[in-house]
Write a structure and sequence with these properties.
Blueprint lengths: L18 E5 L10 E9 L6 E7 L2 E6 L4 E14 L4 E5 L3 E4 L4 E16 L1
Antiparallel strand pairs: 1-2, 2-3, 3-8, 4-8, 5-6, 5-7, 5-8
Length: about 120
């Protein structure tokens, strides 16, 4: 059995303690967004994951592979789906993106979120 996991004051954590995940895979110009964070839990077959993610400003092509539910701790981003629908997210918002969602993401202000993907 796995114990419950807590992250105290996730919005105040020092980014220097995060794992560097590198630049986004499909940038759309400059600046190129840079990702970091840490995984809190991942099941054995890696089909479910929980963690904290941070990303610096920039735009990239986004293709969601797994259903994702998250809470935005800080920052702001704009997601534009391939059908043109615009979703603006920011601090204090709870969001969900279904697997197979495709579009572009623009991080306007460094964004930090806690998430679960499966």
């Amino acid at each position: 059995m796995v114990d419950a996991i807590t992250i105290k004051d996730a919005g105040d954590l020092d980014p220097a303690t995060f794992t560097d995940w590198g630049d986004v895979a499909k940038p759309l110009g400059e600046p190129v967004s840079h990702e970091s964070g840490f995984i809190v839990f991942q099941n054995d077959d890696k089909s479910s994951e929980m963690g904290l993610w941070q990303c610096t400003p920039g735009s990239w092509r986004c293709e969601v592979e797994n259903d994702e539910f998250f809470y935005v701790l800080a920052g702001r981003a704009i997601y534009t789906a391939d059908d043109g629908k615009v979703t603006e997210i920011g601090a204090g918002m709870t969001c969900a993106f279904p697997s197979s969602w495709k579009g572009d993401c623009e991080v306007v202000e460094t964004i930090r979120k806690v998430y679960m993907a499966r």
